[in-house]
Amino acid sequence: MNYWFEFKYTLRLMRKKFGFTILCTSVIAMGIGIIVPLIFMAKVVGLAGLPYENGDRFVIIREGVDSLVNQRIDAFTYQRLEQSVTSYESFGAYREMPAVFSDGDTAELYNAARLTPDVLAITNVPPLLGRSLQPEDDSISAAPVVVISYDLWQNYYAGTTNILDLQARINGEFYSIVGVMPEEFSYPIQNDLWLPLQMESNAEPGESPRVTPIALLRETASIDAAILELNSLLQSLNAEFPDTYGDRVGYVRPFSQLFTTAIRYVPLIIGLSLSMLLLVCLNVGTLLIVRSNERIAELAVRTAVGGTRYRAIRQVLMESFLICMMGALVGLLIGVLSLNIIENWFASSNFELPFWLSFGLQKWEIASIFLATLAVWAVSGFYPAWAATRQDICGVLGNDSKTTANIGTSKLTRLLVSTEVVMSCFLLIVCWVFVVFVYRANQVDFGVNPDGFLTASVDFSSADYSGTAEKLNFLDNLVIEVSNDDAFESMAYATTLAGNYPERIRYRLEDQDIAAGDRIPDIGSVWIGADYLSSMDTELIAGRYFNNADNAFSSPVTIVDQLFAETYWPNESAIGKQIQLHPEGESETVTVTGVVNQLIYGEPDREALNGSAIYRPLAQLPLTNPEAQLAVNSVAIVVKTPMLNTISIANFERSLKVIASEVDRNIPINDVKPLSY
């Protein structure tokens, strides 16, 4: 058997039918090119394990009560679990915290993780310099030490060679730098430094800090078994301390699913991938059937001169195999280009993906794509090859139309074409819905004009600002200093900007009952500076904006949006109406002093478009309960500048950080970007 001769003959046939070859290759390439981004989407929603040894056995543990189903675990519960669980090879915990480095001229905010040494040890990743955290570092009485990331070492300390001899000033305290982790290591989330957890050994039920346990499952244990064990232990604690814990349940899930709420979309992604493969099979199969019809006479002649049916089938399959492999290679190229476009989009939107997600294709993913291509070849190639070689030789050679069967008129072919049409319509509808959704999302007016505005974040959580007065004093001084800088016109601040998700609080109205049975409605609540709404050119429909007289010594007031006012007071003025906030606890009553146009908070879906928000003057925050005051640890600032298009964002960022350091060097300014982002 001369395979080389048949290979060259097949290439000549493909070149002769060049248009057909290009068409089949394009169909396969487009299918593979779409499947590659779908593979990445599957990883995004949590189907990929961590890139470490035994990374698929890394799990996290959470608890839930009623609707709060993704809560961290208190210190007392963690210590009980640590002593009792048997489903894991290693069991530890971590909690995130902001870390402000103030060794230099300006304060820089980084994301830190306080964790037990076991949490780092299970990765089996050695430090690039120095050492990792040790068990003795986790003692309360141990000297404060820190392990930093490669990026922090290079960016903040300029890659200094004596990094292990330095003392880092973190949140106002000094830590010895004992190690530097390798480049791109940011486990467990997007962390830049790691400190010992140093948890008290005699924690009381319900006592903070709350932590997220991370564990390595035993090879012989399953997640279902771990869940049963966890809930057995939690039920014992619930019964022992019913007033503290109530009816808690526990959750054990793969670590890679910690940061996604989109796991419910996995069946859709898998369904789309399989639908795309099926459609490719149908398209290519139909084309190959047409091609086989053209080759019936040729195959009949080959059989008549002594060729076997096996060799005829093999020759037809060789042609379809080469077409499928060419399509796979072109499809991989299209897929890689698509991933590059997606990567650039994420980079431009400042959206951080989990560190273990890579836009590059892994070897097993490439192998899976070629296996899928072989499946396409098997499904779409064998039937045309078999059908083309089962014709009556005499009828074909004699050109007898009654005895010459046409593959394309068979019932199976008609079924293939019908299914192809249905699948194509289905995918077109799905794509059309997606395009319409994206278009409408991009066309939504959030209620503010972002042109000429920069936004940034001020973080108070790491500073010694336990009271609201200190935070307000810093913000007011920052407004003065920014306004005096030639690069800026004005500055305003709020706890939440349009497009983001505000805190939600429950409320009642003094003049009407709006509760649906036992359910009290809730609404988005935004604390703002006195000049925020006017600075953002938010339309005042009735009443007035806040002013400096709305402070901790005046009566509590609020501004509502037009949707809220028209919903509850459609035929009368909302000015002077009273709203009871937090009616289920330490309630407070506020008076409506203004009505403004509606701003959109959160994703621009149906719920957000039909949702309202109320505004409170941040100067009146001391009038609320202490828990609400402590929750305001981060405030967004909005700066107006006429030179936004002429000066780089990096220069603006540097200017804002220098100004902030002059007010208080321990308060960082971060995440500087145009408001339009």
Give an account of the 3D structure.
The two termini are 64 Å apart. Helix content is 42%, strand content 20%. Strands 1, 2, 3, 4, 5, 6, 7, 8, 9, 10 and 11 form an eleven-stranded mixed β-sheet that branches. The chain has a six-stranded mixed beta barrel with strand order 14-15-20-17-19-18. It has a four-stranded antiparallel β-sheet with strand order 13-21-12-22, covered by helices on one side. It is globular. It has 677 residues and is α+β, with helices and mostly antiparallel strands.
How large, in whole angstroms, is the Cα Rg?
A: 32 Å
Q: Could you tell me the number of beta strands?
A: 22
Structural class: alpha+beta
Largest sheet: 11 strands, mixed
List the uncertain runs: 401-405
Mean of pLDDT: 80
Task: State the shape.
Answer: globular
**Fraction of residues in β-strands:** 15-25%
Distance between the termini: 64 Å
Approximate helicity band: 40-55%
Q: So how many helices? A: 19
